[in-house]
Amino acid sequence: MAFSNSHITAYAVEATEFPDLARRYRVTGVPKTVVDETVEILGGLPQDLFVAQALSGRDPSVGPIGP
Amino acid sequence: MGLLSPADQDKLRASFSEMTSNVRVLFFTQSLDCETCLHTRHILDELPALSDKIAIEEVNFVLEKEKATQYGIDRVPALALLADGSNGDGRDSRIRFLGAPSGYEFISLVQALLLVGGRASSLTDENRQKLAAVDKPMTVQVFTTPT
Fold first, then answer.
1. Do the Cβ atoms of A17 and B35 come within 8 Å?
2. ipTM
3. How many cross-chain Cβ pairs, A to B, lie less than 8 Å apart?
4. What is the pTM of this model?
5. SS3 for chain A, per residue?
6. B80 occurs within a structural domain
7. Do A17 and B138 touch (CB under 8 A)?
8. Could you read off the pLDDT of B95-122 as tens digits, one per residue?
9. A66 CA: distance to closest CA in chain B (Å)
10. Is residue B146 part of a domain?
11. Residue B1 lies in a domain
């Protein structure tokens, strides 16, 4: 995603090495994805769902897709 | 001492042979108060031997704060992957790794190297279009554990 758009930056964070980040983002299981501090995606998702959820916080036309 | 078995080295060498462009890995590190920096160094040391398209550039996190800020790095060990143009000016892939890339993270690093090294993205056209509409900074953090 980051490589496709220069506005997007992606961090792969090793949670056990940085407990402060794990606490701040309430990481209780992995993988956990946090987009712009607001959108949380738990576990692995198919690509379509992942992209839709990742964008759900910024594009009002794309609603969050519930579990 | 190698961290990778000869069989794994062969597999990686075969994968990396598909890279069509150079990738430069900026490795942000410091010598004190960093439990996993040395381990990360050892992991990264394996890579250039497996592909002449991969180069590691060490950045001293303490002395080169400006560079760290430029790449959005506020802790170590950290990696930033740059796509090396033919003229040597690295285009920032905006892909970062925080923490030692061991276990599953190592597989993620290999995938990222292949992508930045020229392999076709796995994004569908539809998703690529959706992502292209992002016109403001967006930060995606994926938390994982080594096992």
1. yes
2. 0.93
3. 146
4. 0.92
5. CCCCCCCEEEEEEECCCCHHHHHHCCCCCCCEEEECCCEEEECCCCHHHHHHHHHCCCCCCCCCCCC
6. yes
7. no
8. 999 999 998 899 999 999 999 999 999 9
9. 19
10. no
11. no
